[in-house]
Structure to design on (81 residues):
């Protein structure tokens, strides 16, 4: 089986991007993460997970949504590596 990379866009409650970023890093141990300003002071957190093809990426989406301060989560990109 192959490996899959999935990038999530995480929208945090207003002003809670740093707090949410720390919680994601501590609880989920992503393969990569960056804070990105998209417009007029609005920031999103991009989170990368790499997993085996047998696992579904919806598990990560559910875990991200369960973190305090997360308003919305969406898959930006998913691809075989």
């Amino acid at each position: 089986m192959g490996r899959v990379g999935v990038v999530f866009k995480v929208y945090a409650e207003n002003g809670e991007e740093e707090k949410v970023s720390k919680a994601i890093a501590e609880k989920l141990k992503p393969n990569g993460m960056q804070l990105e300003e998209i417009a007029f002071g609005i920031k999103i957190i991009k989170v990368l997970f790499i997993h085996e093809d047998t696992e579904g990426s919806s598990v990560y989406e559910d875990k991200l949504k369960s973190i305090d301060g997360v308003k919305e989560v969406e898959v930006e990109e998913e691809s075989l590596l």
